[in-house]
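May I ask for a protein sequence together with how it folds?
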Amino acid sequence: MIELHNLGMSYSLEQAQLKVLDGINLSVADGETVAIVGPSGSGKTTLLILLAGLEQPQSGEIRLDGITLNPLDADALADLRRDTLGIIFQSFHLVQSLTAIGNVALPLEIAGKEKARERAREMLDKVGLAPRQNHYPAQLSGGEQQRVAIARALVHAPKLVLADEPTGNLDIATGARIIDLLFDLNEDVGSTLVLVTHDDEIARRCQRVVHLHQGRLVEDRGDALSA
């Protein structure tokens, strides 16, 4: 599902270059669950941003589901995200003029899928927001908005789910429910899951743990936290 070859990324900081990712090589198989861990500033979120095709790396190659991202234009990348990816970032990016159910149904409607509202309602129920489906984002708490964003990311049963601290704004019980949903999707439809987390309990549930430090992959362990 994922092939990264010598991936590098830097950002300009005043008159210097800040190297965020440095020579990352990584393969993730179809249906695999992978936790990305490491200290703040180690490049975890940047790695997800590059995987999502939201920015281009300065060096190296990214292949998702057999497609090389580097040469794709903005329209092709948008099509890839729509058809293949479910992206859960800490920014919700909800459409303020749409209700919760409208936000969740939107990717299905854009893709011309049938029963978009019905499927959106089912997904809102899974994240515990069915009673709030007709509320607008401004009428929802931060945690509720995050759950709407998660429901929208998962409603089309994507082949690959990218999640950046998906429980960060949620209480313990709701966070556990969301994590169960991510792993249920992996089991039910074989979605590949790559998630950034600081939570050892969540990382322990993944088949692999990839450890980043100062932009380098310093450890890649299968079932590393299962003992």
